[in-house]
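User: Can you fold this complex?
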Amino acid sequence: MYGYGGSILRVNLTSGEIRREPLPQELARDYLGGRGFGAFLLYREVPRGTDPLGPENRLYISSGPLSGLLVAGAGKCDVTTKSPLTGGYAGASIGGMLTAEMKYAGIDVIAIEGKAARPTYLYIDDDRVELRDASAYWGKGSLTTEKALKEALGESFQIAAIGPAGEAGVAYACISHDFGRQAGRGGVGAVMGAKNLKAIAVRGTRSIPVAQLERYRELARAMYAACKAAPGLEAWQKYGTAGVTTWANEIGAFPTRNFRSGFFEDHSGLSGETMRAAIVVTDKACFGCPSPCGKYSYVRKHGVHVEGPEYETTALIGGNCALASIEDVAYANYVCDELGLDTISAGNVVAFAIECYERGIIGKADTGGLELRFGDVDVVCTLLRQIAAREGLGAVLARGVKHAAETFGRGSEAFAMQVKGMEMSGYESRHAPSMLLSYMTCDVGAHHNRSWAITYDIARGRDAVTPDKAAKVIELQHIRPLFDCLGACRLQWVELGLDLGHYAPIVEAITGLPRSWEDLLTISERVWNLTRLYWFREVPGFGRAWDAPPPRTYLEPVETGPTAGKRTSREAAERLLDMYYEQRGWDRDGRPTPAKLAQLGLAGL
Amino acid sequence: MHLHAESARCSGCRACQLACSLHLFGENNPKKSALAIVPHFPDPGTFEVRVCTQCGVCADACPAGAIVQNEQGAYTINAEECTGCLTCVEACPEQVISTHADREAPFMCDACGDCVAVCGMDVLSLR
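Assistant: Here's the predicted assembly.
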């Protein structure tokens, strides 16, 4: 099949059986790739009510039709599973070189099921696929494991590995790759750990066939030329996502002290400019990317190398835990990476614990004598290590902020910043209703990546609670996750302004299947509705209440900064949901109507 | 005219290698490219780019006389005259004469410049 690796690699860790299936053409036609493949296979193959950390759960690692080809940003891979954090759908995106290498090995999807009897890693060298003993790596950090496997197998192998947090089943453990790229959200690393799968090593040496070679090369040249001519290229190459930090603070969106505020008074020590000057040593790209957001750093003060910090890490570990120095944030970032913790959830959970301590909801009896306070990197890193080891307070925090609030009680649920059980990422949204709606309706939980609508709030008026805001969220929820189906990065479009008109023609030239932009968006909407159905199927009583914002967003006005005194009322949030459901063709409980499902070819599910 | 690389600017994306394999063989395969990106991670965290400097050492070393300059002055390997002895691969001071299991003859850069066009970081130039 043009543009695809051509196969699904099935790996049963219980029986040791490994087999390749041809990629079904209908799957490529109807679900495109990446996230679409994962969502479809999860829905169809993993039985209702499966324990996320049981052997019946499956992990799908999927490239897309653009992955590994000459397309700007063609380095994205999707990891889908049933989430141990939320009990619902988890789809996490990871950059780096993995997705391309899979394609060169002729693989579109690695589908992992069962549980190995002992620590194991999956070895793939083109057609040679083996399960190998990973005892020597068990207990080791993600970065240490990657380095050791590269030394053992060769630099040309691409490695994805988990750290101690994944081994221990921390509900927000990530999968790490390329010394600083993560499939971060939803606990995909814990699923790997529960399967005794420490790592995956891949090398591929084959060529990916394309349908219309000359047309594809011409379109590719035009795409790279457009990226290189973009006015925003220089700043993005210099600062990456860290360039957003100062702006987020200026608009009062920078989460600070567990989202009590959207403005961090000590932000200057965290800015992209500070970071570039103080710690960055190398710009680091994912496959095929002309505008690398990866900034690889050396933190002299702590003697460590780390990729980042990305904006999200600076927001959740920096502002949200009130660390004022980029060196300290970078060090905590390194600690998370080595332990295999998602920095977003980890920073959110740690800030929550500190606030609970400040309010006297928990005390030294709970923390083992540790005094929790904002602004202290040692406190943050101590908690991170306790979480990864599931020791002391870490045993509670390891299950996520929703669980921690249920355990601590005493009103802490009101400031547990989560939706659907997933910790909120880096945008304080009380004065940004469409961004708040994005968090409420994101299909993995409170994550920003499906709809980064905050710029629309600013353009349209931040107080407005109007149908166009729901429409914008829906539009973004179709465009942005489409990139996760394609196996490519959306940031050339978002940050460089690359025209979306580049994509459908190159998909067509690569795959040979006629595709309009509207066709592609329909696939994305199909996937969005399918993940919604998955939540209804898996979570008892799922519905509108699961789309509610964290109570802090409507109970407490922002404390300080440019948005001080602002909040989005619960009533306004409910109105937004009404508009959103109606425009989506969902009922008042947020369930897709039979007519919508029929329109998307999902009738009968 | 030969390729020049400023390694310190490289972000390791490998678009250059893909453009190279498309030029040489019409294939999408960075392992069939004639320039090398060597990552040094996690420490010191840098990329090393190695490119053909058109120094001609390979041509002098080739016992079959299969490496000759084309009309643009770039050295190329004539696959029909190549005996597959790999002496050139050993001789190349930059280690950028490549081999692949699919191909009997090694292959090398012909200074086409396709890699330069897709490099977002301006690492590569033809001089």
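Residues 56 and 75 of chain B are 7 Å apart (CA to CA). The first strand of chain B starts at residue 3 and ends at 5.
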